[in-house]
């Protein structure tokens, strides 16, 4: 594509050089630049792409998009100066990959908890209806049934548009994606056209990045502020921020709720460890999911599918066939007749939701033993809160390692223990080794008890000092069960 065509959608301060140059590829990583490429320099959170302009030119870049021009300019290179390269990168990438979201319906899911479940269940629902469908999620990306490993909740704009471009080229009619607060703030979704957006909830998370809950809320809200007029916004009015999210949107606002009057109204009729009986818009359905939070997630899927043109009855049939997402309330039964549940819960609110779901089913007929940690190099403020909530909703708690990353595991555990008083500590153990912590929980469990292993869910690694070591909570539990 000619450079002049490529930069049409963006706001330009000045162009130095010719726009007739043919561009072979677009890049934001200088290491991937080849002859004939456009290199786009972004001021990232870790490194500034402007520092790599000379390297990109050495590797064959024929054009440079940047906010700050280099001191020395080459007459063989075209320079495009913009005020906001983050915004420009997304728009250029969208154009280079053929504007994929004009060829398929893209629905984004944002919120603290539930994004993965809702996006994945929508993907599964529309595949059940027979459509070729795409998924962009924390666990894995899919182009119909082809799995593509994922690094971030929302990829960078080049990777994202390349992926969406492949989905469109291979005939996908729908795509569902998790939209993280980081990706909104960093404009990774700039240039994409959404057919709809879903808001799940907002609780404390990512304050290591956003600094305040207000900044976190504003990042989420911007997604709906930018939603086009012909799109839908489906918001959870059980969350106090549900209507705040959509107050400035131009899109058509719809609501869902388990508690109050809404467009899509649901309630839990019965709950067991095998599943729930639900009522959605006065129609009953049985599902293989547990917990009010999952009833809310399923209600969002129901609402979105109906807003995308499906009949309520058909959607209910589809929902009844679905299975929980990997690492989300994954239930296993021990030979000694206690239950172990693996869940990704890594925020205070997610932990409370899962523990409440367990208590709803147990109804006082067994003890709850929780194994929990907190990630290193992330929001430290939630650590004592996580420990306190775990103790509040459990009979015994074992605090252990999660992904310590570059922190000392014992330091993270100490931060968590700081949230506990003397009485709390009487029912709390701390064991640095996660495998030993899980094994200890299993030794403590009696017939009818429930062990919750929280924080890592689908992850099959532990990240320690920058190295990912194989570690899978479910595998550890299976090994223990095999030897009971």
Automatic annotation (TrEMBL):
InterPro entries in the cross-refs: Mur-like_cat_sf (IPR036565), Mur_ligase_C (IPR004101), Mur_ligase_C_dom_sf (IPR036615), Mur_ligase_cen (IPR013221), Mur_ligase_N (IPR000713), MurE/MurF_N (IPR035911), UDP-N-AcMur-Glu-dNH2Pim_ligase (IPR005761)
The reaction(s) this protein catalyses: UDP-N-acetyl-alpha-D-muramoyl-L-alanyl-D-glutamate + meso-2,6-diaminopimelate + ATP = UDP-N-acetyl-alpha-D-muramoyl-L-alanyl-gamma-D-glutamyl-meso-2,6-diaminopimelate + ADP + phosphate + H(+)
GO biological process, one term: cell division
Residues annotated as domain Mur ligase N-terminal catalytic: 22-95
Chain sites annotated for binding meso-2,6-diaminopimelate: 378, 402-405, 455, 459
Endpoints of the signal sequence: none
Domain of life from the UniProt record: Bacteria
Primary location: cytoplasm
Positions of short motif Meso-diaminopimelate recognition motif: 402-405
Residues noted as binding UDP-N-acetyl-alpha-D-muramoyl-L-alanyl-D-glutamate in the record, renumbered to the chain: 30, 153-154, 180, 186, 188
Record PTM text: Carboxylation is probably crucial for Mg(2+) binding and, consequently, for the gamma-phosphate positioning of ATP.
Occurrences of domain Mur ligase C-terminal (ranges): 327-457
Top-level EC class as recorded in UniProt: ligase
Cofactor: Mg(2+)
One annotated Gene Ontology cellular component of this protein: cytoplasm
Involved pathway(s): Cell wall biogenesis; peptidoglycan biosynthesis
Pfam family, one: Mur_ligase
EC numbers on record: 6.3.2.13
Subcellular location: Cytoplasm
Keywords: ATP-binding, Cell cycle, Cell division, Cell shape, Cell wall biogenesis/degradation, Cytoplasm, Ligase, Magnesium, Nucleotide-binding, Peptidoglycan synthesis
Residues that coordinate or bind ATP: 111-117
GO molecular function, one term: ATP binding
Mur ligase central domain ranges (all copies): 109-305
Positions of post-translational N6-carboxylysine modification: 220
Entries under PANTHER family matching the protein: MUR LIGASE FAMILY MEMBER, UDP-N-ACETYLMURAMOYL-L-ALANYL-D-GLUTAMATE--2,6-DIAMINOPIMELATE LIGASE MURE HOMOLOG, CHLOROPLASTIC
Protein name per the record: UDP-N-acetylmuramoyl-L-alanyl-D-glutamate--2,6-diaminopimelate ligase
């Amino acid at each position: 594509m000619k450079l002049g065509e490529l930069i049409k959608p963006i706001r330009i301060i000045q162009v130095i050089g010719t726009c007739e140059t043919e561009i072979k590829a677009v890049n934001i990583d200088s290491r991937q630049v080849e002859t004939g490429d456009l290199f786009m320099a972004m001021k990232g959170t870790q490194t500034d792409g402007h520092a790599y302009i000379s390297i990109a030119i050495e590797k064959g870049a024929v054009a440079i998009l940047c906010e700050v021009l280099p001191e020395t300019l080459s007459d063989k290179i075209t320079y495009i100066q913009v005020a906001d390269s983050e915004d420009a990168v997304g728009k250029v990438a969208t154009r280079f990959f053929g504007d994929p979201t004009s060829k398929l319906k893209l629905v984004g899911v944002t919120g603290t908890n539930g994004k993965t479940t809702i996006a994945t269940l929508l993907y599964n629902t529309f595949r059940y209806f027979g459509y070729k469908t795409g998924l962009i999620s924390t666990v894995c990306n899919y182009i119909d049934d082809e799995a593509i490993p994922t690094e971030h909740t929302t990829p960078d704009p080049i990777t994202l548009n390349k992926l969406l471009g492949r989905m469109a080229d291979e005939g996908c009619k729908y795509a569902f994606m998790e939209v993280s607060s980081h990706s909104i703030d960093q404009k990774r979704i700039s240039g994409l056209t959404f057919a709809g957006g879903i808001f799940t909830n907002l609780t404390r998370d990512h304050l290591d990045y956003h600094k305040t809950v207000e900044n976190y809320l504003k990042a989420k809200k911007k997604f709906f502020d930018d939603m086009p007029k012909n799109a839908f916004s489906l918001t959870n009015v059980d969350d106090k921020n549900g209507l705040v999210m959509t107050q400035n949107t131009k899109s058509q606002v719809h609501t869902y709720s388990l508690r109050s009057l809404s467009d899509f109204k649901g309630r839990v009729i019965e709950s067991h460890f095998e599943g729930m009986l639900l009522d959605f818009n006065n129609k009953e359905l049985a599902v293989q999911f547990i917990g009010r939070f999952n009833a809310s997630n399923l209600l969002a899927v129901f609402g979105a599918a109906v807003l995308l043109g499906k009949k309520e009855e058909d959607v209910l049939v589809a929902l009844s066939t679905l299975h929980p997402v990997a690492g989300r309330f994954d239930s296993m039964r021990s030979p000694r007749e206690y239950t172990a549940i693996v869940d990704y819960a890594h925020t205070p609110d997610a932990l409370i939701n899962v523990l409440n779901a367990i208590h709803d089913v147990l109804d006082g007929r067994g003890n709850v033993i929780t194994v929990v940690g907190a990630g290193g190099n992330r929001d430290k403020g939630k650590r004592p809160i996580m420990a306190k909530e775990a103790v509040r909703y459990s009979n015994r708690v074992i605090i252990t390692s999660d992904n310590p990353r570059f922190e000392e595991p014992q330091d993270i555990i100490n931060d968590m223990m700081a949230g506990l008083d003397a009485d709390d500590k009487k029912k709390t153990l701390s064991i640095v080794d996660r495998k030993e912590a899980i094994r200890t929980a299993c030794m403590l469990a009696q017939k009818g008890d429930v062990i919750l292993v929280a924080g890592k869910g689908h992850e099959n690694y532990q990240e320690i000092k920058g190295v990912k070591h194989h570690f899978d909570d479910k595998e550890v539990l299976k090994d223990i069960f095999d030897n009971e």
